[in-house]
Amino acid sequence: MEHMARKPLIAGNWKMNETIGEAVVLAQEISNEMEPDWLDAVAVAVCPPFTDLKPVYTVFEFDKLRVGVGAQNVYWEPSGAYTGEISIPMISAIGCAYCIVGHSERRQYFGETNEDVNRKVQALLADRTHPIDPIVCVGESLSVRESGDYITFVDAQVRAAFAGIDADVARAAIVAYEPIWAIGTGRTATPEQAQEVCSAIRETLGALFGQDVADEMRILYGGSMNEGNADLLLGQPDIDGGLIGGASLKASSFVQIVKAAL
Fold first, then answer.
1. 178 catalytic, yes or no?
2. Which of 12, 36, 99, 139 could form a disulfide with 71 if both were Cys (CB 3.0 to 4.6 A apart)?
3. Nearest 5 degrees, angle CA 38-CA 41-CA 45?
């Protein structure tokens, strides 16, 4: 199910769930249910809370399973007097391959702005010696969706996130479209609705970085993707994987979604 040369990515966002013990059990269950050769065709990652990153990384490393580990957030300064924050060198030393940036919950509950998101994307893309690929989240609320201005809104979010970034490093970034009205609500965007916005995102990336780079970049759908609807969503030409919330906390559901991406 290759979209040109784009290898699909299925990334699980565990959000604020799982203590270390629970995280190790879940990672082990995922590892037990995955076939190693699937990872030739589909990239898989899990994004647990900071406290679980190392233990989860160790489970996959021990099992020699090429499942990537990602952070759910990061701060843009490399070190300093920023109590409670976590830096790129810290998540890099753990072995993180991905980092979620600008998730709608970060924007909504913790006041993250487009400028904050841009600083984080810039900082992550600046260090290519220990590459951590940003998963940049964009998406509209229900009121924006109902106003009909959602394409314009998402286009502006993408442009803001990638401001000042060169095409040669931008290709490493991943964009996740998450309609806020479909997160954890059980309301999923239809495959057509999801494709419409993901196609518009690719058009914006093309305007920013040129069509070749835009065609290389992966665009994920995030918004109540589960084993029941993954097939249809992943079948869309501009959807290159999923950012999975609730369904990533159950190994069997998560693995079913990975299988749907094969």
1. yes
2. 99
3. 70
